[in-house]
Design a protein that fits this description.
The structure is a single chain. The protein is mainly alpha-helical. The chain has one domain. It contains 6 helices and 2 strands. The protein has a two-stranded antiparallel sheet with strand order 1-2. The two termini are 18 Å apart.
């Protein structure tokens, strides 16, 4: 349970950074609640839809030596924003480049934070 909450928090921080850094990503609401709900939606999209999409695009991922996974992450980021807008918390992504950069920023922020938190709780 603690791991789930930590991952949710890491996603929230990473999405907040993407909102601040990447031009072309416009959140519907800038509140802390909206960032937390967006992180929840992003986590659910990654938990349920991403494995299916990675399975379907497995030949593309193999053919591009793993770079196809970046496209899957881009689609997941844009989809999370779209789903979130239906609940009034999402974000608007202005094109493929903004979605790609947003997914890249979320990955680049969440990986080191997850690593630091994981090593801190193992002690």
């Amino acid at each position: 349970m603690r791991g789930l909450i930590l991952r949710w928090g890491v996603n929230a921080v990473a999405i907040w950074v993407a909102f601040r850094v990447v031009p072309g990503i416009t959140p519907v609401d800038n509140s802390v609640e909206a960032v937390i709900v967006n992180a929840l939606i992003f986590g659910l999209v990654n938990a349920f839809i991403r494995p299916l999409l990675k399975f379907l695009t497995c030949p593309l991922i193999i053919l591009t030596l793993g770079l196809g996974a970046l496209l899957v992450n881009t689609v997941m980021f844009a989809l999370a924003g779209l789903i979130g807008r239906y609940f009034g918390y999402g974000f608007r992504v202005d094109g493929f480049e903004a979605a790609f950069m947003g997914a890249l920023v979320v990955s680049l922020v969440s990986v080191p934070i997850s690593f630091l938190l994981r090593s801190a709780f193992k002690r």
